[in-house]
Amino acid sequence: MKSLLFSHDKTGAVVLALIAGVTLIVPLFNLIFPVDSPLHFSAYTVSLLGKYLTFALVGLSLDLVWGYCGILVLGQGAFFALGGYAMGMYLMRQIGTRGVYADPLLPDFMVFLNWKELPWYWFGFDHFWFAMLMVMLVPGLLAFVFGWLAFRSRVTGVYLSIITQALTYALMLAFFRNEMGFGGNNGLTDFKDILGFNIQSEAVRLTLLFLSGSILIAAFLFSRWLVNTKLGRVVTAIRDQESRVRFLGYRVEMFKLWLFVFSAMLAGIAGALYVPQVGIINPSEFSPLNSLEIVVWVAMGGRGSLYGAIIGAVLVNFSKTVLTGLMPEIWLFSLGAAFILVTVLLPDGIAGLLRKRREAEA
Amino acid sequence: MKANSLKRFNRCFAVALLVWLWAGQAYSQEMNPQVTLLDSLNRLKQGAMPDREQALEQLGEVNHPRTLTVLQALLNGKLYQVASNEQLVIAAENSEGYQLIDAITGEDLGNKPRSDVNKINLTNTIRVKLRKLIGQLELKSEDATVRLAAVNGLIKATDDNTLALLRQLETTERDEAVLEAMQMIFALKDLKSEDKAIRLTALVTLKDFNNQEVVNRLNVLMEKDSAGQYLETDADVRKQAKLILSEINARIQFYSILETLFFGLSLGAVLVLAAIGLAITFGVMGVINMAHGELMMLGAYTTYVIQQMMPDHLGLSIVMAIPAAFLISGLVGIAIERGIIRFLYGRPLETLLATFGVSLFLQQTVRSIFSPLNRSVTTPEWMSGSLQINDFLSLTWNRFYILVFCLMVFVLLLQILKRTRLGLEVRAVAQNRGMAKVMGIPTDKVDAMTFGLGSGIAGVAGVALSQITNVGPNLGQAYIVDSFMVVVFGGVGNLWGTLVAGFSLGIANKILEPYAGAVLAKILVLVFIILFIQKRPSGLFPQKGRAVEAK
Prior knowledge:
The complex is a heterodimer. Chain A is mainly alpha-helical. Chain A has one domain. Chain A contains 15 helices and 4 strands. Chain A has helices at residues 2-5, 10-32, 43-69, 76-95, 108-112, 128-152, 157-176, 202-228, 230-240, 242-247, 252-278, 288-301, 307-326, 328-345, 349-361; strands at residues 188-189, 193-194, 197-198, 280-281. In chain A, helix 2 (10-32) runs antiparallel to helix 8 (202-228). Among the domains of chain B are: 157-233, no CATH class; 254-550, ABC transporter involved in vitamin B12 uptake, BtuC (Orthogonal Bundle), CATH 1.10.3470. Helices cover 69% and strands 6% of the residues of chain B. Chain B is built from 21 helices and 7 strands. The relative contact order of chain B is 0.08. Chain A binds chain B through residues 72, 146, 149-150, 152-155, 157-159, 161-163, 165-167, 169-170, 173-174, 176-177, 288-289, 292, 295-296, 299, 329, 332-333, 335-340, 342-344, 347, and chain B through 288, 340, 343-344, 347-354, 356-361, 363-364, 367-368, 477, 481, 484-485, 488, 519-520, 522-523, 526-527, 529-531, 533-535, 537.
C-alpha cells in the first residue's frame, strides 16, 4: 500500500523516511548511549525536535485545506491553540495540591481570582481520555459551525481568509480576559505530571517526541491516501473550478466542510502535543501573526504537496531558532523577506523547485 | 464789556482749575493703588498676625488691575522677592533658573539665577484667607468667564457674607451665564428656608439647571434620618422635588446618550480613517494590503519626527505632518506596488502574504530606527482638554477634531474619485480593466497612483491616530483586523458603505461597552460581523450589475 501511495511522490517518501528516522533514532540513541556521550541528545534538543514535529503537523493540516482545496485559513493557529488549551486543562488538573495555594480542586489562578468552584467547562478534564476527546472535538466543532455557516453562504477567497483571521483575533481577545477562566494573560503553565509521570523527565520527553513523530507519520500517510481518493480528487477540482464542480452535481460545501473539520482536528492534536513539550499555553498562541506564520511555512515548503508543508515548517522554525538566538532584530526582517520572495519568485515553494529539477532530469 | 471779559476769564479759570483738579485726582488714583498694593504686600510678607490680616483686608480694597495676578502668584508660591533691591517679582522656573516678571508693572525682567530671589512664604491661616480673598476679587473681575468660574466655585460652600456679596453683585451683573449661576446659588440657599413657599419656588427655579450639586441636594430632600423621618418635613415639597428630580434625571439620560453617540462617532471616525485607504486599495483594486496598518504607523512616526524638528510650534507641526505623512506613506505605497504587487495581480491570496511580509519588514525597520519603545506625540493646546457643555456632557476636543478631520478626508477623497481625471481612470480600471486598457488608459500608472492614494490616506490616518494613542511599532497591527472588518462589513468597493459601517460599528461598540466591558464589546462586534458576512457575503451595500461578475 505504501509503495502505491508514494509511487508518484518520491520526495514525499524521502521526507517520510527522514521523519521516521528522527522519531526512532533520537529515543533509541538516548536509551543506548550514556548521558555524557556526544551521541546523547540533550533535553533541549529533544524538546526542540518534538516542537518542530508538532509544527510540521499543523503545517500539514493547513496544506490540506489550502493546498488541496484553496481555502486560505488565516486562523489555523486558533485550532492549534484550542487543542493546546484542552491539553493544558488536563495538565492543570493533574497539579492537584502541589500548586502554590495547594487547593485540591481549583488551579492557582482561580484561587487567586477568588473563585469558589470550578467552572462547568472544566469538569471532566481530570480524565485523560476526556481531555483527548476534547482536543479533537473542540477544534472540530468550531470548524464545523464556522464552516457550516461560511461555506453554505459561499463565502470564499479573501473574505473567508479575513473572517478566519477575525475569528482567531476574537478568540485571542477572549482568552486574554481573566473572566473566561483560562488563566487570562498568563495562560496555563507550571505543569507537573502527565498520566502520573513527571513531565520534566527524560522518558516523558522522549515519549512525547516519539508520539509526535508517529502521529505526524500517520497523519501524513492518511492525508496522502485521502488526497488520492475520490474525495481528494473532488476537493482538488473544487480548488481549481469551484462552480464547475457544483454544476456537475457535487455538494461543494459538504466536501469543503469535512476537509476543514478534519484539518482543524489535526491542528488541535498538534497543539495538544505541543503544550506538554514547551510547558505553557497562553493566549498569544491565538494571535493572527502565529496563524500567518503557519501560512508562511506552507507557502515556503510548497503547498499542495503535503511533504512541502513539513519541510517548510521545520526549515522556517529551525532558522527562527538560529536567528533569534544570534540576532533577534534580524528575525522579522528575514521572515518578512521570506514572505515576499517566496510569493513573488517561488510561488510553488521548495516543493516546486524540487519538482522542476526532477522534471528536468527526466 | 469789561465785566463781561472778566466773567469769561473767570469761566476759563474755573474750567482750567477743574481740569487740573480732575487730572490730579486721576493721577493720585493711579498712583495710590500701586503704592497701597506694594505697601500691603510688604506688610503681608512680614510682621505680626493681626497686621498681616489687616494687610489682606487692605489688599481686597485696592483697585489695581494686577492685584488678582499678584495674589494668585502668591497663593501658588510663584511670588518672589529679589534679594538685592526687595523688588517683588513673579517667577516661572525654566532651565536657566527663573524667568522673572515685575509683580506690579508686569514688565519682563529676563532670566535670573535661583540664588538671586527669595520665595515669599505663607502660613496656612493666611493661605485660607487669601483663597477667599481671591474668590471675592474674581467675582468682581472684568472678565465674564473668570466671574462665572468664581461663582461656580462657590456652589458647594456659601456662607452668609459671600451670599450678601453675591446679592450685591447681582444688581450690577450683565452677563447672562453669571446671572444664571447666581440664581442657582440663591435657589439652593432658599431650599433651606423655613418658609414652604420659598422652598417651592426655589425648586421651580432649580428645575432647569444641569448641575451635579442640584441633583445631590434634591436627593438629600428625599432621604430619611436615622429615626425614619424625612429630612424634608413637607410632603408637597418632597413631591415637587421628586418630580423635578425625575425631570433632571431624564435630561441626564439624554445627555449620556448624546455622549455615547459622540464617543461612538469618534471611535467610528478612527475606524473610518483607518479603513478608508484600505477601501480604495482593497475595494477598488481588489488588492489585499496587509501592510496598511504599517503605512498608518509610518504616518504617526512622521508626525513624531516633525514635532521633534519644531518643538516650539506644536500646532503647526501637526498641520505640517498631514501632507508630509501623505507623501511618505504614499511614496512607500507606490514603491510596494511597483516592487511587489504588480507581479501578483489576479492572485489576491498571494498579495495578502507578500504585503504581510512588507508589514513585518516595516515594523522591524521602525523598531530598529526608533527603538521598540512607544514614542508620545504631544497634543497641541487647542486639541487637548474638553468642551464642557454642562456637568453631564463634555466632549473631548481631540476626538471632536478627529471626527471633523475624518469627514474632511472622506469628502476630499470622494471628490477626487468623482471629479478628477485620476478618479475617473481609477473607476474605469476598477470596473473593467481590459476595456480601460483598450480605451488608452495607462492601467499600470493608474494602479500605482491608486495604491499611492490609498497608502497616503493611511499615512494621514496615522497623523490622527498619533493624537489619541501612543506611537509604537505595533500601532498598525492593532487596527488592521478592525479596518478589514469595516471594509468588508460596508461592502467592498463602496466608500459610503465604509463610512456607514465605520460609524455604526463605533457606535455599537460604545453602546455595548458599559454592559459588557471594552474587550467583550469588541469581541461581540467581531462575532457579529463574522455572522453578518455569512448571511450577506458582500456586505451592507453590495455592488450590483456587471462589476460583480468581473471580479
